[in-house]
Amino acid sequence: MGWVELSEGPDALRARAAQLSGQAEGFAARLSGLLQEIAAIEAARPWGGDQYGTQFEASYQQATEEGPFAQAVDGQVRDLGPEASEIGIALTAGATDYQAEDIRAADDITRIV
Asked: How many structural domains does the chain have?
């Protein structure tokens, strides 16, 4: 594991992590609305039923490991907000762990000196 320098300290990292988590929640809400709009447009099949529209739809609905392409993209987009929020939570935990280890190391040094 490499060295980490917290130039502003763990409290600043926790504050920024909380901001990230809060922004992630807002981002997820905006994405949800956007995905609902996309679903409404998809339901109307705007690509049409001609040769080109049929080819587009076949590509758009092409199977992937996560289901049809359109659903896979939808799922990945929906995961962005929660994943960013989890990063914020992990950063908060990391800052707390860093601070605890720093305090423990200081105590160890004090006992030696």
From this structure: 1
pLDDT single digits (tens) 13-53:
888 888 888 888 888 888 888 888 988 998 999 999 999 99
3-state secondary structure of 67: strand
Strand, helix or coil at 103?
Answer: helix
Range of the domain at 24: 15-112
Instruction: Dump pLDDT digits (tens) for 71-84.
Output: 888 888 888 888 88
**Torsion sign, CA atoms 54, 55, 59, 62:** positive
Cα–Cα distance measured from residue 6 to residue 17, given in angstroms and rounded to the nearest whole number:
13
Task: Tell whether 81 is covered by a domain.
Answer: yes
Establish if 7 belongs to a structural domain.
Answer: no
Instruction: Give the CA distances from residue 112 to residues 67, 101, 105, in Å, rounded to whole numbers and listed in that order.
Output: 60, 17, 11
